[in-house]
Write a structure and sequence with these properties.
Layout: E1 10-14, E2 18-21, E3 26-29, E4 32-34, H1 38-49, E5 55-56, H2 57-64, H3 73-88, E6 98-101, E7 105-108, E8 112-116, E9 126-128, H4 148-170, E10 183-187, E11 191-192, H5 200-215, E12 222-224, H6 227-230, H7 240-247, E13 251-259, E14 263-272, E15 277-287, H8 291-309, H9 329-345, H10 350-366, H11 371-388, H12 396-409, H13 414-426, H14 431-444, H15 449-461, H16 465-478, H17 483-495, H18 499-512, H19 522-528, H20 532-539, H21 547-559, H22 563-579, H23 584-594, H24 597-609, H25 631-639
Parallel strand pairs: 10-12, 10-13, 11-13
Antiparallel strand pairs: 1-2, 1-8, 2-3, 3-4, 5-7, 6-7, 8-9, 13-14, 14-15
Helix pairs in contact: 1-3, 1-4, 5-8, 5-9, 9-10, 9-11, 10-11, 11-12, 11-13, 12-13, 13-14, 13-15, 14-15, 15-16, 15-17, 16-17, 17-18, 18-19, 19-20, 20-21, 21-22, 21-23, 22-23, 23-24
Length: 644
């Protein structure tokens, strides 16, 4: 009886050094086995099997889970593709292996070389072309498609066994610490699956809305990472375990959004990061008018699931569902405009604020009862003047009117209280009211990172540095990747005369973004330490001669004893001011550096007359130390309310 022919197992090679063993479902690079979980491996096999063809998400679902399955398959596929790309070092923007066809599916685009592994004729090695017919035998294994199910089942068993061993050995290695005894959650950016890049504002808005909903559930026990930090991971290839470690969270919520004019589909899944268990997954298909109700429903279900997962160590108090109104068509249109405004507000640029103001205004016209749109207007007007360097009072009245209207419509809106606090502090120098409003915003939402951030500045300007640094740390815990929070922490250290720590903090910010504007305050710390060469070297990195840059030049050169260079910078600054009047505080700093105290105080009086927000640092900024013994300065300090 002749011996049975040796069984042939197929090895597929692609890229420079990747090899996929279809018999065992294992992936290698340069002979070293790579770890890839079961679902990502099955997705990779499906894509490779139909190399060159578009594979829809529905096709992937049917091949891996079967028909009529009730699972959060959108997020499962998103996670699988992300993990495959991570292992293959594939850039989604410039893919070598897996191409995303927006709104349709994926395509494996790399050439494949198939090699039989056992008893094979070397001449049988061949390049695999793109499949031509769905009726043909499968090019992956040479077997009919009905045999693929058995192959994938075997692959799944092997992958699951490997994954269990891996989790048992590593489940406790990356468990993040809790922040102040609270459980921490990150809501990662919801993926836009509409196929239209113009809908990014909607998916980003959904992300922020879910952050707000989750943050308001039980803030004493559940901390929620702020938008700025989670948006760092939008379209990011980093694995979830790394994201959780960087953000310091125990739980991650992933989601996606599809919508048309009348319907919206939201999928979400909650993952426990200690062992990457998928605790909860849901898919919701609703009418757009029910959007706010749906957000509340998701938030409540998640809080219940976290509570259950923690067993006897439950930090999450029982939460009653949050009542939310069903939106009328007009109110939904206003809500859509609000989300667009929020999208541009978060860009934190002059152009972004201008766009945001336009959308928020349209939202208030569509729905005059939309308190959040008025709060968005208030915060936009409160900040844009500083970014423009325009006269301080230009936007103050509009900011105040919008904040008061927001509070008239909804006195429990934390964003409105924080915006009003900023306005009465920066324009009215009403420190008591500002503190009350900041505290009220934090009371309403202890997870509101911006309120903690702005309140930390408020405390620093009043000289309460220990409190300020504690509040700044709370903001950082809620928004760990925010550059503005980190930079303003450096500013607080500078105001408290901790110059070395301030310099280190500004340097850390610049390592993440060398051009971040607020980090330019490092020159002030250098000057106070007499490190004039370092301050001047820092100026060399700046482009152009903006008013603040010329002011910094004049101040630093004057303090360094370089009178001629300081006076030249001052002349340019005054010439610019004659062409376009600027905040007087820009010119004050130049005169202080030159030692001209009379002119410095004269320009301080102009700043006071214009209600400049630059006067808020009058009590604590070391740059003003040469003026402190002057009775005129002390009188100004009293009028600004900072003499206590």
């Amino acid at each position: 009886m002749p011996p049975e022919p040796a069984k042939v197992q197929t090895s597929l090679r692609f890229g420079d050094d990747f090899e996929l063993d279809t018999g065992t479902g294992q992936l290698y690079r340069s002979g070293r086995m790579l770890k890839l979980e079961r679902i990502p491996m099955e997705v990779l096999l499906v894509l490779v099997q139909q190399r060159g063809e578009l594979v829809s998400r529905d096709q992937i679902v049917e091949k891996i889970w079967g028909k009529d399955v009730y699972l959060d398959t959108d997020n499962a596929i998103n996670g699988a593709i992300r993990k495959i790309r991570q292992v293959l070092k594939d850039d989604p923007e410039q893919p070598r292996f897996i191409q995303t066809i927006t709104g349709k599916g994926y395509r494996f685009i790399a050439p494949l070389v198939e090699t039989p592994k056992t008893g094979a004729d070397p001449e049988s090695e061949r390049a695999i072309a793109a499949p031509q017919s769905a009726a043909r035998e499968d090019s992956l294994t040479g077997l009919p498609r009905r045999r693929i199910a058995a192959l994938l089942l075997g692959t799944a068993i092997v992958a699951i066994a490997a994954m269990v061993l891996y989790l048992r050995s590593s489940e406790l290695q990356t468990r993040p610490l809790r922040s102040g005894g609270r459980t921490m959650l990150a809501v990662l950016p919801f993926e836009n699956l509409t196929g239209d890049a113009g809908q990014e504002y909607f998916s980003d808005g959904m992300t922020e809305e879910m952050i707000t909903q989750m943050g308001g559930l039980d803030p004493e026990h559940l901390g929620v990472i702020a938008r700025t930090s989670v948006m760092h991971y939008k379209h990011s290839p980093e694995p979830l375990q790394q994201i959780a470690r960087e953000l310091g969270v125990q739980y991650v919520l992933e989601g996606s959004v599809r919508r048309d004019a009348e319907k919206v589909r939201i999928t979400a899944q909650l993952i426990q990061m200690s062992d990457q268990t998928h605790l909860w997954a849901r898919q919701y298909d609703r009418e757009t008018k029910d959007l706010l109700v749906l957000q509340s429903e998701i938030a409540t279900e998640i809080s219940d699931e976290i509570q259950t997962a923690l067993g006897e160590h439950k930090p999450i108090a029982p939460i009653a569902p949050i009542a939310q109104p069903t939106l009328s068509p007009q109110a939904y249109e206003a809500y859509n405009l609000y989300l667009k405004g929020l999208y541009f507000w978060n860009k934190r640029s002059v152009e972004g604020f201008q766009e945001a103001i336009g959308y928020f205004q349209q939202a208030t016209v569509k729905d005059p009862a939309d308190a959040r749109a008025y709060a968005g207007l208030a915060s936009s007007y409160a900040l844009i003047g500083t970014y423009l360097g325009s006269p301080p009072a230009e936007f103050a009245s509009q900011a105040r009117a919008a904040a008061l209207q927001a509070l008239h419509l909804d006195d429990n809106l934390p964003e409105a209280h924080a915006a009003l606090a900023l306005i009465v502090q920066n324009h009215d120098y009403d420190w008591q009211t500002a503190e009350k409003e900041f505290k009220r915003a934090i009371e309403l939402n202890p997870n509101y990172a911006t309120a903690h951030h702005w309140y930390a500045e408020h405390l620093a300007w009043r000289g309460r540095f220990d409190e300020a640094l504690r509040e700044s740390e709370r903001a950082r815990q809620l928004d760990p990747l925010s550059l503005i929070i980190a930079a303003d922490n450096g500013a607080i250290l500078y105001y408290s005369r901790q110059y070395d720590r301030a310099i280190a903090q500004f340097i850390a910010v610049r390592e993440l973004d060398p051009t971040f504007p607020r980090a330019t305050l490092i020159f002030l710390a250098y000057v106070q330490k007499g490190m004039f060469a370092e301050a001047e070297a820092d100026f060399e990195k700046r482009v152009g001669e903006s008013p603040w840059t010329l002011s910094n030049f004049a101040y630093t050169y004057g303090r360094a004893g370089k009178q001629a260079q300081a006076e030249q910078a001052l002349r340019k600054l005054l010439a610019l001011n004659r062409q376009h009047p600027m905040d007087p505080m820009v010119i004050v700093l130049a005169y202080v550096g030159l030692g001209n105290n009379d002119q410095a105080i004269a320009w301080l009086e102009k700043a006071y007359a214009q209600h400049s927000n630059g006067l808020t640092a009058l009590k604590v900024d070391p740059a003003f130390d040469p003026l402190r013994s002057d009775p005129r300065f002390q009188d100004l300090l009293r009028r600004v309310g900072l003499n206590q």
